[in-house]
Amino acid sequence: MKKSTAALLTLVLGAALMLPAAASAASAASPTVGEIQSSVSFRTQPSTSSDVTRYLKQGEQVVILEEVNAYWYKAQDVNGAIGYISSNDKYVEIVAKGGDSGTAAKTGTIVASVSFRTGPSTDASRIRYLAKGEKVTITGQPNSYWYAVTAADGKQGYVSSDDQYIQVSGGGSAPVESPSSANATIIASVSLRTGPSTDASRIRYLAKGEKVTITGQPNGYWYAVTAADGTKGYVSSDDKYIAVTGSLPGNNPSDGNPNNGGGSGNHDALVERVIAAGMKYLGTPYEFGSDRDTTKTFDCSDFVRQAFREGANLLLPVDSRKQGDYVRGLGHVVTDWHQLKRGDIMFFMAYKGTKASAYAGVDKSDETITHCGIYLGNGQILHTYSIESGGVRTSVISGTHWEYRFLFGGSVV
C-alpha cells in the first residue's frame, strides 16, 4: 500500500461526499480505492470505442464503484466525475478494500497562510491565499502532496497537504444545494476553465448531473457559467457535455454571445478534434518506417500526420524533419516548451542521456530533428517512440530527457 492509512481515509471520505444521490445511502461504508499505476483513459462507457473524458495520471486515486466485467471498473475520481477505466493491474492497483466506516467527513484548519490553487500543482493558478485560522472541508486527496478542499465561501480548489500549512480534524459540512437560477445540467463530465479556451487553466471537472447557470456565450464553442458552489468559469457548449434546461441570457454585449463577435473557438475545436483523433490510438504499436496508408502501427511522424489528417483534414509531410520545416515555414515557432499551446507539434533532437548535463553546451540550432509529438498542455506530450515504451502514449516533459532534447514547436492549425 503506497499511501498512508490517513491519506486513504481522507480520499475515501471525500469521495463519499461526492457520490450521486442514488448512492448516498451507502455513504456509511468506505468504498474500494484504486491507485493509478500508469496513465489510463477515463471513459464514458466500458469500451475502448467510447469517448475519453480525460486521462487519469499515475498516482491519482479513484473510488471503485463497480467491477463491470473482467476488463472494466466503474469508478469515481476525486472531482466527483464518474466513468470507466481498465481493470488491468498495470493501470490500477487496489490499495484499500471497502468496509464499514462511521467516521465523519474530514475538515482542515489552516495553520499558516497557504496558496489556494485551481489544480494540485504549484504551476496551477492561485485563486487566493488561505489565511491562518480559516476552516476548509477536505473532499479528496489526488496525491500525497495535495488536498482537494472547499473553503468556507464555497470556493473549491487545492492546498498543500503539508502539516505546516493545514491541520486535519473531524467534522464536515453538507453539500451545497443547486441554485434556483440554474438553467443547464451537465450530462457528461467536463472541464470548468478560467477562460473560453482549452489553453485556460482547469478549475475542476463538473460532474454528470451538476446544475449550472449559463451567464453568457463568448463564442459558438463555450458557455460562461456559474456552478452550484458559486464558482464562475467556462465550459464547452457541445451538447454531449451540457443540456440547456431553461432560458439563456439575451443577446447583448455583456453576455458575450457569438452574434457580438469572437472566433477563437474554431481553432480550439480543431485542436480538440486533432487530440481526440490521436488519443484513440493509445497503445497502437510502434514501428519505425511504418506504412503511411494503415493505422496498425506508427512511428512518430506517421502518428502526428494521422492525428492531423483525421482531426483537422490537414495532410502534413511524411517525416519529422519535413514536418519541422513546415512548422518553421509558418513563422510562429517557440524554443521554450513552456510557451507551447495545446495542440502544437513538438520537435526533438537525438537522445544523449537522461540528465540535463548530457545536453549542456549543445547548439540546438545545428541539431537534426529525430522525433516529434503533439503537446497536450499541462506539461505532457502525446507521441510514440519505441516498441518498449508500449507504442502511442503520453509522457511528462518537465525534468525528463524530453525537456532537454526539445528543439522547437508550433501550431499548424
TrEMBL record:
Residues in the signal sequence: 1-28
Keywords: Hydrolase, Protease, Signal, Thiol protease
The keyword Hydrolase appears for this protein: yes
Keyword Flavoprotein listed: no
Region of interest called Disordered, as start-end residue ranges on this chain: 247-266
Biased composition (Low complexity): 247-258
The NlpC/P60 domain, residue ranges: 268-413
SH3b domain boundaries: 28-94, 101-168, 179-244
Cross-referenced InterPro entries: Cell_Wall_Dynamics_Protein (IPR052354), NLP_P60_dom (IPR000064), Papain-like_cys_pep_sf (IPR038765), SH3-like_bac-type (IPR003646)
Family per record: Belongs to the peptidase C40 family.
UniProt name for this protein: SH3 domain-containing protein
Biological classification of the source: Bacteria, Bacillati, Bacillota, Bacilli, Bacillales
